[in-house]
Amino acid sequence: xxxxxxxxxxxxxxxxxxxxxxxxxxxxxxxxxxxxxxxxxxxxxxxxxxxxxxxxxxxxxxxxxxxxxxxxxxxxxxxxxxxxxxxxxxxxxxxxxxxxxxxxxxxxxxxxxxxxxxxxxxxxxxxxxxxxxxxxxxxxxxxxxxxxxxxxxxxxxxxxxxxxxxxxxxxxxxxxxxxxxxxxxxxxxxxxxxxxxxxxxxxxxxxxxxxxxxxxxxxxxxxxxxxxxxxxxxxxxxxxxxxxxxxxxxxxxxxxxxxxxxxxxxxxxxxxxxxxxxxxxxxxxxxxxxxxxxxxxxxxxxxxxxxxxxxxxx
Length: 314
What we know:
Strand content: 15-25%
Shape: globular
Number of helices: 13
Radius of gyration: 18 Å
Distance between the termini: 25 Å
C-alpha cells in the first residue's frame, strides 16, 4: 500500500485548484547561461528579501519539488517565498553549454534570485541540485541562510563521474547510467525519443527501479515525469561540470546544513556521510527510512519533517 497520498506525489502542475501553487507565476530570467524559467509568487519580494530556492537533480525539472511544496503547505508551514526553477539545460530553460561549470550554474541561480528581488536565500537541492546548493553556500556565504541537500552528488558519485571505468565498482549503477546517457546523447533528439519509447513499452519503470526503494508504491506520474524530463545531453554536461568541481570548497560553508539521504540510496552511502562529516563538521545528517535516491518524493515523513524542522532519522 502506498503510504504517500497521490495528491502529494503527483508531479502535474496543471491543477488550478492547488492552493500550494496558487500564487506561482512562470517567469523567464535571462542569465549568462541563457534563459532560466522560474516559478515564483511575484508579490513575495515586497514582503521579504529572503527566498527558498528549489534546485532539482539531473533527471527532473522544477516539478520534482511539488510533493515538498504541497506537503509543507498542508502541514501549515509553507515554504517561504519559494523559487522553483528549471536549471540550465533542463525543463523549459535554455540548453547548457559544454564549458559551463558548477560555479557558472551557481552564479546563474543567484542571478535569478537577485533579479526577482531577493537578497538572501535558503536552499533545497536534490542530487546534482544538492551539489549546486552547497556550491552556492560556499560562493555566497553572506546570502545563504541554510542548505538542505537531499542525496547530494558527493565524493562517491564524483569519483565515478571522473573515472567511470576505473571506479565502476564503487557505484556500478551510476557508471552504467552515465554510459547510457552518453550513448543517448550521441543520438541527439532521437535519444529522448528512445526514452519515451521505452516508457510507452512500460520498460522505463523497471529500468529506473534502482533509483527508488519501492517503485510500485509510487504514483504513476513520477515515472511519467521522468520519461518526459530526462535530458541525456544535459545529464552528461552536468556530470562533466560536477566532475571538474573541487568539492573541498564546501569546507568554506558556514551556514546551517542538513544532509539527507534515503536508507536505500544507490548513489549515496555511509562512506559519503563520513566524508561530509570531516569536511562540513557542523552539518546535520539524516537518513530517511524506506527511501532511495528520491527521498523527497518517496518518504511520507520527509516533507513534513523538513517543513517542521524535525529530524527524520538519526
